[in-house]
Every structure is written in structure tokens, then in C-alpha cells.
Amino acid sequence: MTKKQLNESVEYLKNKGFDSPEIGIVLGTGLGQLVDEIEEPIEAHYHHIPNFPLATVEFHTGKLLFGFIENKKVVVMQGRFHLYEGYDLLDVTYPIRVMHELGIQKLFISNAAGAVNLNFKKGDIMLLEDHINLQGGSPLAFKNVAEFGDRFVDMSEPYDFEMREKITAIAAQENISLQKGVYASVVGPQLETKAEYRMLKILGADAVGMSTVPEVIVANHLRLPIVAISVLTDECDPDYLLPVNIQEIIEIAGKTEPKMIKIFKELVKVL
Ligand code: HPA
């Protein structure tokens, strides 16, 4: 990754009308409905944006949208890049750097995750308070990282405290029950074994998924305040583990998404 590449991506988007968005939003698997809330949308397909990671077949729907939510300028990533699709950590986090160069000052991230904490149920949403990186690498482990910021990035509070407080208040006001906890990121794409779910619990994870942490690390590198919400799509009980049903996971993500949309929209309003 070079500054020149980043500038080319950003120039393309600016020319398309992506004019100084204030807030960036990353939509996770099965979580695309927020796109319908964008007013005056402008679209840029990932495979048209210079230097964006090359799309896999299933990724042809991936796009960046610019527009307005609650009268604020937003840029929304519909579909993200995952390690399990064969991308590397620089690919996965490239769009975060592009959105930052476009001017965003806040970032919201969503994902679908499994509930490791068995007090949490499928259909719940969880505000990330912290995370455990189990992806075996860092998006900051590259030679010219110093051109982009510090190498030894502080992670004592990766998720912005003020925005978390605002989300807590919004959930209470909207009568949305909100879990809070620690998200562990794995590579996937295979789901976890019973022994792995036991391990994750012992490690202190409340939820597990295959994304988000690389983007959060890069946002911290950029000193970009972020918040993240997991939509819990399945219960990962090692003593009673049902075979995974991807169809059901996507269905539950879709059914639960309105709660997340409500919270993100209210948060945009009060920022
Ligand atoms: N693991 C288990 N369950 C899940 C995941 C995962 O990575 N993502 C969504 N549900």
C-alpha cells in the first residue's frame, strides 16, 4: 500500500461526488438494509474503484455508498472484505483508510457473530467493549507503516467511550435490550469446534466472528473514533452444539438488523 494508491482511490470517489462524508459505516454479512435509509445515494462498486482489492465472484455486489442519513453526510460500505476469502489484512482494511482520507471523523462497524456467552441469545445485539485478536496477524505489520502513523498503537480503549455511552442511552430510550461484551475474531471460514468454543469462553470472549478486529486496529492507527455492534445470530453452546445453519444465520441477521439500524440512526442524529 502506498499514499499514491490511496490518493487514486480517493480522487475517483471525490470525482463521483463523495463529498466530505462525516461518518463511515461498515455493514456486516446479512446486514444490508441500512442502505435503504440513505438519501440521495451515490454508488461506487468496489471493482470500479482504483486500487480497491480485486473482487471475488461473490463480491460483485460489494459497493461504497455516499449520501445522507439524518441530514449528515455518510459513506457506507455494503459488504466488506474477509481474510477467509483470501484477502490479506492490508486488503481487508484498505477501505477504512480510504474512508478516512475522504474525511470521516467517526466510524460505525457492524457484524454478525455467534454468542459464546450463553446468557446472550440469538437475535440479541451486543455493543463491543473490547476484543481479542485471534486472526494471527496485524494490519499494521508492514514495512512502510511509519508513513501512515505510529507502529506501536495504543489499544487500551479501542472502542470510543463517549459513543458507547450514547449508544447505551439510545438503547434504553428506544427500549432495545443491549448486551455488552468482548468480541473474538477468528479467520474462519469454518465454524468453531466444541473445544474451540470452550476455549473462547475461557479466554473471556462473549461473541465470536470473522471480521471487525482488523478494521478496528486500523481505525485506532488513524485515531478515528469507532464503535461496533454485533448482531448475534447463533448460540455457541459446546455442550449442545447444533450443526451450523448458514441460511438461518443470515435470516436472523436480517430480522435483528432493524434494532441496529435504529441505534446507528439515532447515534448519527446526536453526533
Ligand atoms: N462463529 C460462530 N458463529 C457465528 C460466527 C462465527 O464466526 N459468525 C456468525 N455466527
Can you walk through the features of this model?
The protein has a single domain (3-270), classed as Nucleoside phosphorylase domain (Rossmann fold, 3-Layer(aba) Sandwich). The chain has six helices and nine strands. 43% of the residues are buried. With 271 residues, the chain is of the alpha/beta class. The model has no long low-confidence stretch (mean pLDDT 94). Helices cover 31% and strands 24% of the residues. The radius of gyration is 18 Å and the shape is globular. Helix 4 links the parallel strand 7 (178-185) and strand 8 (207-209). Helix 3 (161-173) crosses helix 6. It has a five-stranded mixed beta barrel. The chain binds hypoxanthine. Hypoxanthine binds next to strand 5, strand 8 and strand 9.
